[in-house]
Amino acid sequence: MRGESVVVVGAGQAGCQVAVSLREQGHRGPITIVGDEQAAPYQRPPLTKAYLAGETDLAGLVLRQDSYYEDHGIKLIRNERVIGVDRRARVAVLGCARTIGYDHLVFATGARPRPLPIPGAEHVLNLRTVADADAIRRRLDGRIGLDVVVIGGGFIGLEFAAVVRKLRHEVTVVEAQPQVMQRAVSAETAQHLVNRHRSEGVQILTGTGVAAVREGLVELADGTVLVADLVVAGIGVIPNTEVAQRAGLAVDDGILVDAHLGTVDPRIRAVGDCARFASTHAGGLIRLESVQNATDQATTVAAAILGSAEPYTALPWFWSDQYDVKLQTAGLTNGHDRTVTVGDPAEGRFSVFCFKNDKLVGIEAYNRPIDFLMGRRILESGTALTPEVVARPGFDLRASQQKAA
Amino acid sequence: MPKITYVTHDGVETVVDVAQDDTVMRGAVLNGIKGIVAQCGGGASCGTCHVYVDPENTKPLSQMHQVEDELLYFTACERKENSRLSCQLPVTEEQDGLVVHMPEKQL
After folding, report:
1. In this structure, are residues A295 and A13 in contact, taking their beta carbons and an 8 Å threshold?
2. pTM as predicted
3. What's the average model confidence in pLDDT over A371-384?
């Protein structure tokens, strides 16, 4: 198997990790990563946090030093796109018309911000790349007290709101759903986050759509008009699947892959935000947008290229930093029908245990990192934990597991 | 730049120049040193950048916060007196010459 060449399409967290894991696992053949950004592969999570706040620069975000790629025989092609894949000839076609042959190809093309389907969307900035964050920083640079409207109350929108508030701007978050972070967390956790934002002086409007954006103004569906020096949207993403689709691979809100992250073409796999896979944790096809998913899928795919038959089964987990709140979730909590809260919500340290049909499906740890790590272990091992047990007065996850062990 | 020495579980030593205000974790990851995973990228969220500070160490180290303290109970290898999460160890000239030992595994 040694000597086979791998082309990785996309240079985000997943794409970079495919190359890193291949080398770590002993792959000897050529590896090429093609990415359409100028920057070397970098971490995106700090873009809504330390980077936006000016606490770190691009050098603080890169996943590996430039010399790493050279030292490990990884060819990194930047500022370039793969525009086509000829599966019969086994070549990737670059935008400059050059071709690169492959024995294995991995799509790690990521996703792009979902455009706002309203008039005036051209006045709205997104936050996905370093270039996006730089554009926002230029608009905020050195000023205070600007009116900033955030469209979308998901992870990106709320983290962005928290940082911009700390930079002393006036922030309003507009969320179309009745609850912020509806896809990601329980109503309890969402409410605590909303309370926290409000206590910092951020205005959060839920159940409110945006009708139009005009220069300096945001018009809501209910007729309210907000003054806005800057409008930023975070309303979800669209997976980048066009090249895979043109290559004749199955695509449906993501490149469809099996439990081993393989497509119907045994030489082509997909990882990260762009891959829609059969999840044992979700009990169906899902797409996950997270660092955990990007890196764990990349590691699985690297092993698969080297001959492993291990399926991808990693437990999903996420984190979000907003003000001094560290929210960590383990498992997939959407679709839960019962929650039990442990700890002290009034003190801002608690965990929400989410159950579905009395089975634990996820834990949301709000400033309780121990519960997060314990929760990961419990969910990974499939240890049964009923709502009744968790709801007992004085329940402590750590003590309960020590007793069990 | 301050130099940090990383010693793998099987005794391989690598000396790395780490930029001011980067962390001991970043110094390892940026240079592809095996033995530090850092799943969360430095957010004190995952406990996979565990190191043992050299027992002979005399360099000043950052104070341990509660989150780090709690996470250290859940590392893959046993917590010792000299255990730290390397993402919580910022590097300045004062740490020049610091030696850290990596545990057998992080996951």
Report:
1. yes
2. 0.95
3. 91
Give the domain A115-233 fold: FAD/NAD(P)-binding domain (3.50.50)
- pLDDT classification of A383: cutoffs 50, 70, 90: confident
Q: What are the residue boundaries of the structural domains of chain A, listed by start?
A: 6-111+238-305, 115-233, 324-404
List chain B residues with CB under 8 Å of A62.
30
CA distances B31 to A14, A44, A166, A381, B14, Å, are 18, 19, 33, 33, 10
Residues of B in contact with A369 (CB under 8 A): 44-45, 67, 70-71
Q: CATH for B3-101, among 3.40.630.30, 2.60.40.10, 2.40.30.10, 3.10.20.30?
A: 3.10.20.30
At A40, the pLDDT band (50, 70, 90 cuts) reads very high
Instruction: Chain A: give the shortest CA distance to residue B27, in Å.
Output: 9
- The helix (run of H) or strand (run of E) holding residue A294 is helix A291-305
Q: What is the mean pLDDT of residues B76-81?
A: 94
Q: What is the ipTM of this complex?
A: 0.90
Which residues in chain B touch residue A328, judged by CB atoms under 8 angstroms apart? 45
Topology of the domain covering A6-111+238-305? FAD/NAD(P)-binding domain (3.50.50)
Tokens coding A97? 């018309």
**Are A6-111+238-305 and A324-404 in the same CATH fold?**
no
What average pLDDT does this structure show over B68-78?
A: 91
Mean per-residue pLDDT over chain A, rounded: 95
pLDDT value at A404 more than 80: no
Q: For chain A, say whether B65 makes contact (Cβ under 8 Å).
A: no
Where do the domains of chain B lie?
3-101
Q: Which of B34, B39, B43 sits opposite A24 (nearest CB)?
A: B34
User: Which pLDDT does position A399 carry in this prediction?
Assistant: 78
pLDDT (mean) for A7-28:
97
Cβ of A325 under 8 Å from any chain B Cβ?
A: no
Kindly report the three-state secondary structure assignment for every residue of B24-51: HHHHHHHCCCCCCCCCCCCCCCCCCCEE
A349 part of contact set with chain B, CB < 8 Å = no
CA of A91 vs chain B CAs: smallest distance (Å): 29
Residues B77 and B48 sit within 8 Å (Cβ to Cβ): no
CA–CA separation, A175 and A154 (whole Å): 8
What is the CATH number that goes with domain A324-404?
3.30.390.30
Instruction: Using CB atoms, pick whichever of A68, A377, A398 lies closest to residue B30.
Output: A68
Q: Do the Cβ atoms of A64 and B70 come within 8 Å?
A: no
